[in-house]
Amino acid sequence: xxxxxxxxxxxxxxxxxxxxxxxxxxxxxxxxxxxxxxxxxxxxxxxxxxxxxxxxxxxxxxxxxxxxxxxxxxxxxxxxxxxxxxxxxxxxxxxxxxxxxxxxxxxxxxxxxxxxxxxxxxxxxxxxxxxxxxxxxxxxxxxxxxxxxxxxxxxxxxxxxxxxxxxxxxxxxxxxxxxxxxxxxxxxxxxxxxxxxxxxxxxxxxxxxxxxxxxxxxxxxxxxxxxxxxxxxxxxxxxxxxxxx
Length: 245
Hints:
By secondary structure, the chain is of the alpha/beta class. It has one domain: Spore Coat Polysaccharide Biosynthesis Protein SpsA, Chain A. Helices cover 44% and strands 17% of the residues. The chain is built from 9 helices and 9 strands. The longest helix has 25 residues, at 219-243.
């Protein structure tokens, strides 16, 4: 199974940490340069982001970090299509694995169906926080789910990659919009058990800049945002029912 590691050119410390970890675990990978949202021109943003639909779906425009993150993952999906990669392991450079990771990744590779739009998360944030990771004698298995977020490590099929490119380019939602995609039948989402991946938040900060958006929602802005969300979600659902995306 091909493995891809997303890394911004400037984040050499993250690359060094990820490389050391992956070498120790025996996971061979290919580095994929991440897209820096801050460096995108207005023309590039118009090309790669559906601004009106994003406003309908999200209620506000995404941060440069969120845009860059989504486009980085979509670049891997394009490589899967152009190089006919049936299944891929996708990792971000702030991922931290348990020593169980090679065993669980090997299991996922043996059971995933490349012909179906399947997506297997190696992390688990579904309870509002990342589950602890540690070596475990638990028998590996998959659990079907409909909710989670974050993209530090997952396995994705070519069929799922094609579907996400069809429905989310130009970008409408972030690259971890799993509840939306499972509810609408675009992908089959699973957790790999035991959980073997987590974001390394102790050493690295997120590049998504999401907190800046949340801090700006106060008073009347919060009320206006809530009203826009009702209207936007209605328009977003109407678009899906008409166009299937």
